[in-house]
């Protein structure tokens, strides 16, 4: 039987390796591609949803913590991948959860209103927040 990998990367995981070691092996072997794709996805995410830009690290680390509760082996592999590729863990989380993050809607950051009413006067005000 002829094995044809279609030029997809083959990573040999050894039974004695830990999940973190597997991640490191993957990250080191495909560092350039991982870094390139992580940047592309992060840029796409910010272009699609600019309001997330200042919140990405916080949200990604929150996702990582929740994932760790679900499967510690998975998150250890992501830590190894992060170290092997030389990227912060939040970039690896965003890379792997791009479609989950791109549609996050933050609390409305729009205009604010206020109103004061006394027996003699009624006064209303509104900010007109301008976003790029």
3D structure, described in words:
It is a single chain. This protein has a single domain, classed as Arc Repressor Mutant, subunit A (Orthogonal Bundle), CATH 1.10.10. Helices cover 54% and strands 8% of the residues. It is built from six helices and two strands. The protein has a two-stranded antiparallel ribbon. Helix 1 packs parallel to helix 4. The mean pLDDT is 85.
Short summary of the structure?
This protein has 132 residues and is mainly alpha-helical. It contains six helices and two strands; from the N terminus they run ααααααββ. It has helices at residues 19-29, 31-48, 56-70, 72-85, 89-96, 98-102, and strands spanning 113-117, 122-126.
Secondary structure layout plus pairing:
Blueprint: H1 19-29, H2 31-48, H3 56-70, H4 72-85, H5 89-96, H6 98-102, E1 113-117, E2 122-126
Antiparallel strand pairs: 1-2
Helix pairs in contact: 1-4, 2-5, 3-4, 3-5, 4-5
Task: Report the portion of residues in β strands.
Answer: 5-15%
Task: State the end-to-end distance.
Answer: 58 Å
Report the average pLDDT across residues: 85
Q: Tally of extended strands?
A: 2
Largest beta sheet: strand ordering: 1-2
Q: Identify low-pLDDT runs.
A: none
Shape descriptor reads elongated
Structural class: mainly alpha
Put simply, the count of helices is: 6
CATH topology: Arc Repressor Mutant, subunit A
